[in-house]
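hey m, so remember when u said the tokens were messed up on ur end? i reran from scratch. heres the input so u can diff it against urs
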Amino acid sequence: MMERKKLDVKIKQIVKENDSGSQSVSYDLKINGRDFNRGVTNVKLVMRASDLPRLTIECVPDNIDFELDTDKILELSAESKEKLKNVKEFINDFLDE
């Protein structure tokens, strides 16, 4: 069974209309007690009756860490090149018929 996460969204402040006629909202966003306020540019929560809720958070992170398995990347690259070679040969054989 999928682990459930707790989402807390609390509106801290609503800034009234600005020159463009829109409102600005300041809020706290937490998932399992962890703050997600810094760098968050957009939050979208879709709750359809026939499906599980879907949460999309757009953000600008301060830092991104990657763990890369270079051997696996090279292996996948070699497999892709071989598949591409096979496709090219198939097309050439097909065109020659």
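this time it looks ok to me. The helical segments are 70-96. if urs says something different then somethings off w ur setup not the seq
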